[in-house]
Amino acid sequence: MPIPVGYILRHPSPAEAPAVQAVLDAAESADTGEARRHENDIATEWRSPQCHVDTDWWVAVADRDAIAAVAWVWPQTVGEVTADHYVHPDHRGRGLGEALLDRIEARAAELPSHTPEGAPRHLVVWCEDADAERHASLARRGFSEVRQYFEMAIDLRGDLAAPSWPSGIVARGFGPGIDDHAVHEADLEAFAEHHLFEARDYDEWRLFHSDAPGADVTLWWLAWDADALAGFVIPFEGDHGATIDDLAVRKAWRGRGIGRALLLAAFAKLRERGQTVARLYVDAQNVTNAVRVYEAAGMHVSRRFDVMEKLLKIPYFARAYDEDGYTREEYNTHPALVKTHEAFSKATNEMVAFADSCLKGNCKA
Protein backbone atom coordinates (compact mmCIF):
# COMPACT_ATOMS: atom_id res chain seq x y z
CA MET A 1 0.00 0.00 0.00
CA PRO A 2 1.43 3.43 -0.88
CA ILE A 3 2.06 5.98 1.82
CA PRO A 4 -1.20 7.94 2.31
CA VAL A 5 -1.54 11.37 0.73
CA GLY A 6 -0.16 14.10 2.96
CA TYR A 7 2.67 11.99 4.38
CA ILE A 8 6.18 11.10 3.34
CA LEU A 9 8.19 8.09 4.44
CA ARG A 10 11.88 8.50 5.23
CA HIS A 11 14.60 7.39 7.62
CA PRO A 12 14.85 9.43 10.82
CA SER A 13 17.83 11.53 11.84
CA PRO A 14 19.62 10.98 15.17
CA ALA A 15 18.26 14.30 16.42
CA GLU A 16 14.71 12.98 16.06
CA ALA A 17 15.04 10.35 18.81
CA PRO A 18 12.89 12.37 21.26
CA ALA A 19 10.15 12.83 18.64
CA VAL A 20 10.19 9.11 17.84
CA GLN A 21 9.98 8.31 21.56
CA ALA A 22 7.00 10.66 21.83
CA VAL A 23 5.12 8.67 19.17
CA LEU A 24 5.74 5.39 21.00
CA ASP A 25 4.71 6.92 24.33
CA ALA A 26 1.54 8.43 22.84
CA ALA A 27 0.59 5.09 21.27
CA GLU A 28 1.25 3.26 24.54
CA SER A 29 -0.83 5.75 26.51
CA ALA A 30 -3.73 5.51 24.04
CA ASP A 31 -3.64 1.72 24.05
CA THR A 32 -3.67 1.46 27.86
CA GLY A 33 -5.95 4.41 28.64
CA GLU A 34 -3.42 5.96 31.02
CA ALA A 35 -0.21 7.97 30.82
CA ARG A 36 2.60 5.55 29.96
CA ARG A 37 6.16 5.49 28.67
CA HIS A 38 6.84 2.76 26.11
CA GLU A 39 9.19 -0.02 27.19
CA ASN A 40 11.52 0.71 24.24
CA ASP A 41 13.94 3.51 25.03
CA ILE A 42 14.84 4.98 21.64
CA ALA A 43 17.91 6.88 22.84
CA THR A 44 19.40 3.60 24.12
CA GLU A 45 18.41 1.46 21.15
CA TRP A 46 19.84 3.91 18.63
CA ARG A 47 23.19 3.74 20.41
CA SER A 48 23.38 -0.02 19.94
CA PRO A 49 25.83 -1.21 17.26
CA GLN A 50 23.13 -3.66 16.16
CA CYS A 51 20.75 -0.82 15.32
CA HIS A 52 20.88 0.73 11.82
CA VAL A 53 18.69 3.81 11.89
CA ASP A 54 19.73 4.91 8.41
CA THR A 55 18.49 1.70 6.73
CA ASP A 56 16.14 -0.16 9.09
CA TRP A 57 14.04 2.57 10.74
CA TRP A 58 11.38 4.73 9.11
CA VAL A 59 9.17 7.63 10.12
CA ALA A 60 6.01 8.78 8.41
CA VAL A 61 6.10 12.55 8.44
CA ALA A 62 3.09 14.84 8.14
CA ASP A 63 2.95 18.58 7.59
CA ARG A 64 5.65 20.67 9.25
CA ASP A 65 7.80 17.56 9.73
CA ALA A 66 5.60 16.23 12.54
CA ILE A 67 6.33 12.50 13.01
CA ALA A 68 3.06 10.58 12.73
CA ALA A 69 4.28 6.98 12.77
CA VAL A 70 7.40 4.87 13.32
CA ALA A 71 8.53 1.46 12.08
CA TRP A 72 11.68 -0.59 12.36
CA VAL A 73 13.28 -3.92 11.58
CA TRP A 74 15.79 -5.38 14.02
CA PRO A 75 18.67 -7.54 12.76
CA GLN A 76 18.12 -11.28 12.63
CA THR A 77 18.20 -13.14 15.94
CA VAL A 78 18.28 -16.97 16.06
CA GLY A 79 16.60 -17.31 12.69
CA GLU A 80 14.04 -14.57 13.30
CA VAL A 81 13.79 -11.01 12.01
CA THR A 82 11.86 -8.92 14.51
CA ALA A 83 9.98 -5.74 13.64
CA ASP A 84 7.33 -3.37 14.92
CA HIS A 85 5.47 -0.19 14.05
CA TYR A 86 3.43 2.43 15.89
CA VAL A 87 1.05 5.11 14.67
CA HIS A 88 0.35 8.21 16.75
CA PRO A 89 -3.29 8.19 17.94
CA ASP A 90 -3.97 11.44 16.05
CA HIS A 91 -3.03 9.79 12.75
CA ARG A 92 -4.70 6.39 13.04
CA GLY A 93 -7.26 5.12 10.56
CA ARG A 94 -5.53 6.61 7.51
CA GLY A 95 -3.60 3.59 6.23
CA LEU A 96 -0.23 4.41 7.75
CA GLY A 97 0.00 1.05 9.52
CA GLU A 98 -0.48 -0.87 6.28
CA ALA A 99 2.09 1.25 4.46
CA LEU A 100 4.62 0.69 7.23
CA LEU A 101 4.01 -3.06 7.21
CA ASP A 102 4.71 -3.07 3.47
CA ARG A 103 8.05 -1.36 4.12
CA ILE A 104 8.87 -3.76 6.96
CA GLU A 105 8.17 -6.85 4.84
CA ALA A 106 10.18 -5.50 1.92
CA ARG A 107 13.19 -4.71 4.08
CA ALA A 108 13.03 -8.03 5.93
CA ALA A 109 13.20 -9.84 2.58
CA GLU A 110 16.31 -7.84 1.66
CA LEU A 111 18.28 -8.56 4.82
CA PRO A 112 21.02 -11.18 4.51
CA SER A 113 20.45 -14.42 6.34
CA HIS A 114 22.75 -15.38 9.21
CA THR A 115 21.42 -18.92 9.52
CA PRO A 116 22.81 -21.96 7.69
CA GLU A 117 21.75 -21.91 4.05
CA GLY A 118 18.46 -23.68 3.63
CA ALA A 119 17.31 -23.00 7.19
CA PRO A 120 13.95 -21.19 7.36
CA ARG A 121 13.67 -17.80 9.00
CA HIS A 122 10.66 -15.78 10.02
CA LEU A 123 9.50 -12.21 10.36
CA VAL A 124 8.14 -11.63 13.87
CA VAL A 125 5.90 -8.81 15.05
CA TRP A 126 3.82 -8.27 18.17
CA CYS A 127 0.11 -7.57 18.36
CA GLU A 128 -1.93 -6.86 21.47
CA ASP A 129 -4.61 -9.53 21.60
CA ALA A 130 -7.32 -6.89 22.04
CA ASP A 131 -6.33 -5.13 18.78
CA ALA A 132 -8.66 -6.97 16.39
CA GLU A 133 -7.95 -4.65 13.46
CA ARG A 134 -4.19 -5.15 13.56
CA HIS A 135 -4.62 -8.87 14.17
CA ALA A 136 -6.80 -9.16 11.05
CA SER A 137 -4.33 -7.12 8.99
CA LEU A 138 -1.45 -9.38 9.96
CA ALA A 139 -3.51 -12.52 9.29
CA ARG A 140 -4.30 -11.27 5.78
CA ARG A 141 -0.58 -10.93 5.19
CA GLY A 142 0.09 -14.53 6.16
CA PHE A 143 1.13 -14.03 9.79
CA SER A 144 -0.01 -16.54 12.38
CA GLU A 145 0.05 -16.54 16.17
CA VAL A 146 2.84 -18.69 17.58
CA ARG A 147 2.96 -17.72 21.28
CA GLN A 148 1.99 -15.03 23.77
CA TYR A 149 3.76 -12.51 25.93
CA PHE A 150 2.23 -10.96 29.05
CA GLU A 151 2.57 -7.61 30.70
CA MET A 152 2.31 -8.29 34.43
CA ALA A 153 1.83 -5.67 37.13
CA ILE A 154 1.57 -5.16 40.87
CA ASP A 155 0.11 -2.29 42.88
CA LEU A 156 2.88 -1.32 45.27
CA ARG A 157 0.45 0.53 47.53
CA GLY A 158 -1.02 -2.75 48.72
CA ASP A 159 0.36 -5.29 51.16
CA LEU A 160 3.73 -6.66 50.12
CA ALA A 161 5.19 -9.86 51.54
CA ALA A 162 8.71 -9.65 52.95
CA PRO A 163 11.34 -11.53 50.96
CA SER A 164 12.32 -14.90 52.40
CA TRP A 165 15.82 -15.94 51.36
CA PRO A 166 16.65 -19.67 51.10
CA SER A 167 19.27 -21.10 53.40
CA GLY A 168 22.78 -20.21 52.25
CA ILE A 169 21.64 -17.32 50.05
CA VAL A 170 22.77 -13.81 50.93
CA ALA A 171 21.21 -10.78 49.24
CA ARG A 172 23.04 -7.50 48.80
CA GLY A 173 23.19 -4.54 46.47
CA PHE A 174 25.19 -4.22 43.28
CA GLY A 175 28.84 -3.16 43.49
CA PRO A 176 29.73 -0.97 40.47
CA GLY A 177 33.08 -1.96 39.04
CA ILE A 178 33.01 -5.15 41.13
CA ASP A 179 29.93 -7.12 40.13
CA ASP A 180 29.46 -5.96 36.53
CA HIS A 181 31.02 -8.94 34.76
CA ALA A 182 29.45 -11.45 37.15
CA VAL A 183 25.97 -10.08 36.43
CA HIS A 184 26.61 -10.00 32.67
CA GLU A 185 27.76 -13.63 32.66
CA ALA A 186 24.80 -14.70 34.80
CA ASP A 187 22.49 -12.87 32.40
CA LEU A 188 23.89 -14.78 29.41
CA GLU A 189 23.53 -18.12 31.17
CA ALA A 190 20.08 -17.55 32.64
CA PHE A 191 18.45 -16.37 29.41
CA ALA A 192 20.24 -18.67 26.94
CA GLU A 193 17.18 -20.92 26.52
CA HIS A 194 14.64 -18.12 26.21
CA HIS A 195 12.60 -17.18 23.16
CA LEU A 196 14.44 -14.74 20.84
CA PHE A 197 17.48 -14.73 23.12
CA GLU A 198 20.07 -12.26 21.91
CA ALA A 199 23.54 -12.70 23.39
CA ARG A 200 24.97 -9.24 24.03
CA ASP A 201 28.62 -8.60 24.64
CA TYR A 202 29.65 -6.84 27.82
CA ASP A 203 29.64 -3.31 26.38
CA GLU A 204 26.19 -3.67 24.85
CA TRP A 205 24.87 -5.26 28.02
CA ARG A 206 26.03 -2.17 29.96
CA LEU A 207 24.39 0.07 27.36
CA PHE A 208 20.97 -1.46 28.07
CA HIS A 209 21.42 -1.80 31.83
CA SER A 210 23.86 0.14 33.98
CA ASP A 211 24.50 2.87 31.37
CA ALA A 212 20.90 3.24 30.17
CA PRO A 213 19.10 6.57 30.72
CA GLY A 214 17.41 6.47 34.10
CA ALA A 215 19.46 3.52 35.33
CA ASP A 216 20.01 3.44 39.08
CA VAL A 217 22.19 0.56 40.21
CA THR A 218 21.28 1.22 43.85
CA LEU A 219 17.92 -0.43 43.01
CA TRP A 220 19.56 -3.68 41.96
CA TRP A 221 19.54 -6.78 44.15
CA LEU A 222 21.99 -9.69 43.83
CA ALA A 223 21.55 -13.11 45.43
CA TRP A 224 24.82 -14.85 46.34
CA ASP A 225 25.60 -18.42 47.34
CA ALA A 226 29.05 -17.97 48.89
CA ASP A 227 31.11 -16.57 45.98
CA ALA A 228 28.67 -17.67 43.26
CA LEU A 229 26.03 -15.30 41.91
CA ALA A 230 22.75 -17.22 41.97
CA GLY A 231 20.47 -14.52 40.60
CA PHE A 232 19.75 -10.82 40.26
CA VAL A 233 16.99 -8.29 39.60
CA ILE A 234 17.31 -4.97 37.72
CA PRO A 235 14.46 -2.48 38.25
CA PHE A 236 14.02 0.94 36.67
CA GLU A 237 12.04 3.81 38.12
CA GLY A 238 9.68 5.73 35.86
CA ASP A 239 7.35 8.71 35.85
CA HIS A 240 4.42 6.41 35.12
CA GLY A 241 5.48 3.33 37.02
CA ALA A 242 8.53 1.17 37.61
CA THR A 243 9.75 -1.59 35.31
CA ILE A 244 11.45 -4.84 36.24
CA ASP A 245 13.85 -4.92 33.33
CA ASP A 246 15.60 -8.18 34.17
CA LEU A 247 15.01 -10.93 36.71
CA ALA A 248 17.28 -13.95 36.40
CA VAL A 249 18.11 -17.03 38.42
CA ARG A 250 20.82 -19.34 37.15
CA LYS A 251 19.78 -22.90 36.39
CA ALA A 252 21.59 -24.54 39.34
CA TRP A 253 19.66 -22.37 41.83
CA ARG A 254 16.15 -22.50 40.37
CA GLY A 255 13.18 -23.86 42.25
CA ARG A 256 14.29 -22.53 45.64
CA GLY A 257 12.30 -19.30 45.81
CA ILE A 258 15.18 -16.98 44.91
CA GLY A 259 13.30 -15.33 42.06
CA ARG A 260 10.30 -14.51 44.25
CA ALA A 261 12.55 -13.15 46.99
CA LEU A 262 14.44 -10.94 44.52
CA LEU A 263 11.16 -9.54 43.20
CA LEU A 264 9.81 -8.80 46.66
CA ALA A 265 13.05 -7.07 47.64
CA ALA A 266 12.83 -4.95 44.48
CA PHE A 267 9.18 -4.08 45.13
CA ALA A 268 9.98 -2.91 48.67
CA LYS A 269 12.77 -0.62 47.50
CA LEU A 270 10.66 0.79 44.68
CA ARG A 271 7.86 1.59 47.09
CA GLU A 272 10.37 3.39 49.32
CA ARG A 273 11.23 5.54 46.29
CA GLY A 274 7.58 6.51 45.84
CA GLN A 275 6.68 4.17 42.97
CA THR A 276 3.07 3.00 43.04
CA VAL A 277 3.12 0.28 40.37
CA ALA A 278 5.72 -2.09 38.92
CA ARG A 279 5.45 -3.89 35.60
CA LEU A 280 7.37 -6.45 33.59
CA TYR A 281 7.05 -8.34 30.32
CA VAL A 282 7.34 -12.10 30.10
CA ASP A 283 7.05 -14.89 27.55
CA ALA A 284 3.93 -16.81 28.60
CA GLN A 285 5.60 -20.07 27.48
CA ASN A 286 8.79 -19.24 29.35
CA VAL A 287 10.89 -22.38 29.90
CA THR A 288 11.40 -21.52 33.58
CA ASN A 289 7.66 -21.08 34.27
CA ALA A 290 8.35 -17.48 35.20
CA VAL A 291 4.66 -16.50 35.13
CA ARG A 292 4.03 -18.67 38.19
CA VAL A 293 6.96 -17.04 40.02
CA TYR A 294 5.60 -13.56 39.31
CA GLU A 295 2.12 -14.55 40.42
CA ALA A 296 3.56 -15.94 43.65
CA ALA A 297 5.09 -12.51 44.27
CA GLY A 298 1.67 -10.86 43.90
CA MET A 299 1.71 -9.84 40.22
CA HIS A 300 -1.16 -10.30 37.78
CA VAL A 301 -1.51 -10.35 34.00
CA SER A 302 -2.50 -6.85 32.88
CA ARG A 303 -2.09 -7.16 29.07
CA ARG A 304 -1.58 -9.92 26.53
CA PHE A 305 0.39 -9.75 23.31
CA ASP A 306 0.33 -12.28 20.48
CA VAL A 307 3.64 -13.05 18.79
CA MET A 308 2.80 -13.12 15.09
CA GLU A 309 5.14 -14.91 12.71
CA LYS A 310 5.48 -15.22 8.94
CA LEU A 311 7.88 -17.41 6.99
CA LEU A 312 10.26 -15.35 4.89
CA LYS A 313 11.41 -16.56 1.50
CA ILE A 314 14.29 -18.98 1.80
CA PRO A 315 17.10 -17.18 -0.08
CA TYR A 316 18.40 -20.18 -2.02
CA PHE A 317 14.88 -21.14 -3.03
CA ALA A 318 14.00 -17.63 -4.20
CA ARG A 319 17.23 -17.42 -6.19
CA ALA A 320 16.40 -20.68 -7.95
CA TYR A 321 13.43 -18.96 -9.59
CA ASP A 322 15.28 -15.79 -10.59
CA GLU A 323 15.86 -15.35 -14.30
CA ASP A 324 19.60 -15.09 -13.71
CA GLY A 325 19.65 -17.40 -10.69
CA TYR A 326 21.55 -20.68 -10.44
CA THR A 327 23.26 -22.38 -13.32
CA ARG A 328 22.08 -25.93 -13.97
CA GLU A 329 25.19 -27.30 -12.25
CA GLU A 330 24.76 -25.03 -9.19
CA TYR A 331 21.11 -26.01 -8.92
CA ASN A 332 21.75 -29.75 -9.24
CA THR A 333 24.54 -29.75 -6.65
CA HIS A 334 23.19 -27.28 -4.06
CA PRO A 335 23.20 -29.21 -0.70
CA ALA A 336 19.75 -28.05 0.40
CA LEU A 337 18.20 -28.77 -2.99
CA VAL A 338 19.88 -32.18 -3.16
CA LYS A 339 18.37 -33.05 0.24
CA THR A 340 14.95 -31.88 -0.96
CA HIS A 341 15.31 -34.06 -4.06
CA GLU A 342 16.32 -37.05 -1.94
CA ALA A 343 13.35 -36.59 0.40
CA PHE A 344 10.87 -36.29 -2.46
CA SER A 345 12.39 -39.27 -4.26
CA LYS A 346 12.19 -41.39 -1.12
CA ALA A 347 8.55 -40.41 -0.55
CA THR A 348 7.69 -41.10 -4.20
CA ASN A 349 9.32 -44.53 -4.10
CA GLU A 350 7.46 -45.40 -0.92
CA MET A 351 4.16 -44.31 -2.49
CA VAL A 352 4.84 -46.40 -5.63
CA ALA A 353 5.73 -49.43 -3.50
CA PHE A 354 2.55 -48.98 -1.45
CA ALA A 355 0.38 -48.74 -4.61
CA ASP A 356 2.09 -51.81 -6.06
CA SER A 357 1.40 -53.84 -2.91
CA CYS A 358 -2.27 -52.76 -3.01
CA LEU A 359 -2.58 -53.89 -6.63
CA LYS A 360 -1.20 -57.26 -5.57
CA GLY A 361 -3.77 -57.55 -2.80
CA ASN A 362 -1.33 -56.85 0.04
CA CYS A 363 -2.46 -53.31 0.83
CA LYS A 364 -1.77 -52.40 4.46
CA ALA A 365 -2.42 -48.85 5.68
Question: What is the element layout, followed by pairings?
Answer:
Elements: E1 8-10, H1 17-32, H2 42-45, H3 53-56, E2 57-61, E3 67-77, E4 80-87, H4 96-110, E5 122-128, H5 132-140, E6 144-155, E7 169-173, H6 180-191, H7 202-208, E8 221-225, E9 228-236, E10 242-249, H8 258-272, E11 277-283, H9 290-296, E12 300-311, H10 315-320, H11 328-333, H12 335-359
Parallel strand pairs: 4-5, 10-11
Antiparallel strand pairs: 1-2, 2-3, 3-4, 5-12, 6-11, 6-12, 7-8, 8-9, 9-10
Task: Give the tags.
25% strand, Aminopeptidase, twelve-stranded mixed sheet, globular, alpha+beta, 365 residues, 3 domains
Fold and architecture overview:
The protein has 365 residues and is of the alpha+beta class. 35% of the residues lie in helices and 25% in strands. It folds into 3 domains: 8-120, Aminopeptidase (3-Layer(aba) Sandwich), CATH 3.40.630.30; 154-304, Gcn5-related N-acetyltransferase (GNAT) (Aminopeptidase, 3-Layer(aba) Sandwich), CATH 3.40.630.30; 325-359. The protein has helices at 17-32, 42-45, 53-56, 96-110, 132-140, 180-191, 202-208, 258-272, 290-296, 315-320, 328-333, 335-359, and strands at 8-10, 57-61, 67-77, 80-87, 122-128, 144-155, 169-173, 221-225, 228-236, 242-249, 277-283, 300-311. A 12-stranded mixed beta sheet has the order 1-2-3-4-5-12-6-11-10-9-8-7, with helices on both faces. Strand 9 and strand 10 form a beta hairpin. The longest helix has 25 residues, at 335-359. The protein starts with 7 loop residues before the first strand and ends in a 6-residue tail after the last helix.
